[in-house]
Amino acid sequence: MLNEVAALVDVDPDAGDNLDIIQGSGSDAVGAALALLVSSNLDELNATAAFGGTDLVSVTYDAGTDLLTFRFVPAVNVVAGDTIVVTDTDGGTFAASAENVITDGSNGGADVFLFEPTASDNGADIINDATVGATGDVFNFSAFLAAAVGFAGAVNFTAGLDLSAGATNVGIAFNKATLAVGDISLAAAASKVAVEDGSKAIVLVTADVNGVSDTTGNAYLIYYVTNGATAGLGDVSVALVGTVNSTTELNAADWIAGNFA
Asked: How many CB atoms lie within 10 A of CB 33?
């Protein structure tokens, strides 16, 4: 329950499933507090509420549109009759719209995403509701790599990602928000991605500090990295070609070689 009070006492939304907010707070403060309260109690809600056979995974508030958005796991659509109602018991100082709009997402199954041979041809794609692992999506970079995938796995960027060894050409670095030319090296090094001369690589990075699924909801960014035939790093290029979003934040360790082609 969200409680309107003169002085804040209950500021932990998970303790007792309550949260205090200052009397007279505006819609943005109330909306943000509601999103925090619900998000902090998803386990209890999913254990007791009926959402048409699916589970609620996140709630967000957009101050620009004044919309509360409830996102559910993919593959099962929420039944139109299963509405979410906000009940106001404080005398009418705040009122929530009764309007509910249900937008169906993906089917949650395995999709294949084909990327173009160059960054300019491909552009920067946005992929939503991605899934990884043995039954997850496949990201096909064969047109760019022109070689079989050699997956290096996932590492903390501070330890360095080595894609300079033989056929290894795809890797993931967590604790890294973006990638630039200055992050590339010729040989393995801390806080660098190693790509040897005359080769190409696919590098995914995520700002998540430990690569473990949590409530931060960080995306994975996909980069084309090309190190030309000229010796050294003078002909290196790095280009963003995709942003991978998911209903629940992806574990870096859950990506497997089978998710790439």
From this structure: 20
**Quick one: CA dihedral 104, 137, 255, 152, positive or negative?**
negative
For residue 109, give every residue at least 6 positions away whose Cβ sits within 8 Å of its Cβ, in sequence order, or none.
75, 131
Q: What's the CA gap between 178 and 221, in Å, rounded?
A: 7
Distances (CA, A) of 248 to 130, 209, 213: 9, 16, 7
The C-alpha atoms of residue 55 and residue 46 are separated, in whole angstroms, by 6
pLDDT tens for residues 17-59?
Answer: 778 888 878 888 888 888 888 888 888 877 876 666 677 888 8
Task: Find the angle CA(164)-CA(125)-CA(108) to the nearest 5 degrees.
Answer: 100
The DSSP letter of residue 115 is P
Q: Residues near 12 by Cβ (< 8 Å), separated by ≥ 6?
A: 19
The SS3 of residue 124 is: coil
**What tokens appear for 130 in the block?**
């991605």
What pTM was estimated for this model as a whole?
Answer: 0.62
The identity of residue 14, as a single letter, is D
Three-state DSSP state, 238: strand
Beta-strand runs (E) in the chain: 2-5, 19-22, 56-62, 67-72, 112-114, 125-127, 138-140, 151-156, 161-162, 170-174, 184-185, 193-194, 199-206, 220-227, 236-244
Exposure of 203 in the CB half-sphere (CA atoms within 13 A) = 35
Helix runs in the chain, H state only = 27-39, 42-48, 119-122, 142-145
Confidence of residue 68 (pLDDT cuts 50, 70, 90): confident
